Amino acid sequence: MKVYFIGIGGSGMLPLAHLASASGHEVQGCDPRGQNQPGLTVFTDIDPRRIASVDAVVFSSAIPADHPELMAARMRSESGSLKIYHRMDFLREILSDHPVRIGIAGTHGKTSTTSIAGWVLLQIGMDPTIFAGGRPKYLAQGMRRGKDVAVFETDESDGSFLRSGANVRLALNVDRDHLDHYGDEQTLHDAFRRFATEGEIAVVNAEDEVLRHLPGTTYSTSAAIADYMGTFIGETDRLKVSYHGEQLGELSVALPGRHFASNALGLFALFDTLRRRGSLVFDPQIALEAVSTFPGVERRMELIGTTNGALIYDDYGHHPSEIAAVLRALQIRNPGKRIRIVFQPHRFTRTQEHGPGFARVLSIADECWLLPLYSAGEVPIPGVDSEWLVSLMGGRARMTSDPELPLLLKSAGPNDIVLFQGAGDVSYLGRNALKALGQA
C-alpha cells in the first residue's frame, strides 16, 4: 500500500512512517523541515495533487482541518478510493497481527517507559515491535519491527489512546494537562479510567489518586498497598522489589530520578503479570538486571556534554511535575552541586494554566533563566509569556536569549549542572551553544 504522511517529520509521525516502511508499505510524506531517509520519500512543500496517487493518508491531531492535502484526502475518501487514518488508528492496524499489544499511557513518562520496555524485551530474548514518541538510543529510527510482542506509546493529549487497540495496558499517572482537549479534569480522569479498564490486562499506579481504585494489578513505591511494592534504598533512586511480600530483587535505572524508578517498577509489574499468566517466559532476575543497562532516550535526562567540568543536560519535560522530578533527580545524584536551569515555556495555553506551578518548581533550581515562550503555533494570549513567569518568581529568575547561551555555559564550572528544559527548540539551542564552545 502506498501511504502518505502529512507532517511526516513530527516526533510521533516519523517513527510511525519508518514502522510502516518496515511493514512493507511504500511511504512518502510532507514536512517543511523534513528530508529523505531510507525507505521514506519526504517533500518539503505541500501539494494536494500528490494525494491522487496514494492509497492511504495518515495525519495527526496537529494537522489543521483546512490543510490542503488533508482536504484533498477527505474529498477522495468520500468516493471510497482512499483510506484516511489518524496516526493512532494506523498504528493499531499495523500492530493488529501481534498477539500481545502493550500500550503505555500517562501524563508523564510514556516515552522513556516504552523505551525501557523495548530494551528489556530484547534482553530477555524476545523479538518485539517497539514504537516510542522519542528516539531510544538503541534504535536508530525510533522504532523496531518484530513479531512476538508489541510495546508502544499511546497519546492522551487528543484522546486517541482510547483507540490504541492494546490488549495489555500500563497506566503510569494522571496529571492536570491537555484541558484544552478535555475541557475539565473529570473528563480527563474518565478517559484514563476507560483506558485502564477496556483492555484484557491492566497494571496501574496505586500511588495515583485517579488510578488507585481501578481493577487490575497495582504497583507502588510509597505506603500505598499494592501487588508489587518498591522500597527505595536509603536516599537513592534504587528499589527493592517484592510481590505480595516475596522479595524478587533490586531494580536500578541508569537514568537518574525516582520517577524513572517508579515507572520501571510498573513496567516490571506488567511483564511479571504476563509471565505469571503464561503470556511471556523469562527469568525475573534477568528482566530486573536489564533495566539497569538501559542506554537512555534522547532528550530524557540526556547528558549532552561538559564544559569546564560542568555537566550539561537536556530534557523534554514541559509540565511542572516533570520539571520538579528532573530537578530533584539531579539533586539526588549530584549532592552539593549548583543546578542552573534554562527553561523554555511551551504553548500559551499550558503556560497560562500552570504559571504559578512553573514559578514554584523552577525555584527548586539554584539559578533560573527563561527563554522566550515557544508558541507551537498557538495564538498569543495577552500577558502570558516568559516575562510573566519571571515576575511570578519575584526576582528568582531572569530572561535570556539564544546569543547569550554560550556565555552562560562558559561561566559554568566543575560544581555546576546546566539543564536545558522544555519541549520547543530549547534542545537545539542548547546543543548549538555547546558547539559554539567546541564542546559537542
Gyration radius, to the nearest Å?
22 Å
Q: Reading side by side through the largest sheet, how are the strands ordered?
A: 8-7-9-6-10-11-12-13-14-15
Which CATH architecture of the largest domain would you pick?
3-Layer(aba) Sandwich
What is the name of the CATH topology of the largest domain?
A: UDP-N-acetylmuramoyl-L-alanine:D-glutamate ligase
Strand segment tally: 21
Mean pLDDT level:
92
The class by helix and strand makeup works out as alpha/beta
Unreliably modeled segments: none
Proportion of residues in β-strands:
15-25%
Give a brief outline of the structure.
By secondary structure, this protein is an alpha/beta fold.
What does this structure look like?
- It is a single chain.
- The strands form three sheets. Strands 8-7-9-6-10-11-12-13-14-15 form a ten-stranded mixed beta sheet, with helices on both faces.
- It is α/β, with parallel strands linked by helices.
- It contains 13 helices and 21 strands.
- The chain is globular, with a radius of gyration of 22 Å.
- Helix content is 32%, strand content 22%.
- The chain folds into three domains: 2-87, Rossmann fold (3-Layer(aba) Sandwich); 95-292, Mur-like, catalytic domain (UDP-N-acetylmuramoyl-L-alanine:D-glutamate ligase, 3-Layer(aba) Sandwich), CATH 3.40.1190.10; 302-436, Mur ligase, C-terminal domain (Protein-Tyrosine Phosphatase, Chain A, Alpha-Beta Complex).
- It has helices at residues 13-22, 68-78, 87-94, 110-123, 179-182, 185-197, 258-276, 284-292, 320-333, 348-362, 386-392, 405-410, 426-436; strands at residues 2-6, 26-30, 40-43, 56-59, 83-86, 101-105, 129-131, 143-144, 150-153, 168-171, 201-205, 217-220, 228-232, 239-243, 246-251, 302-307, 310-315, 338-343, 367-370, 398-399, 416-421.
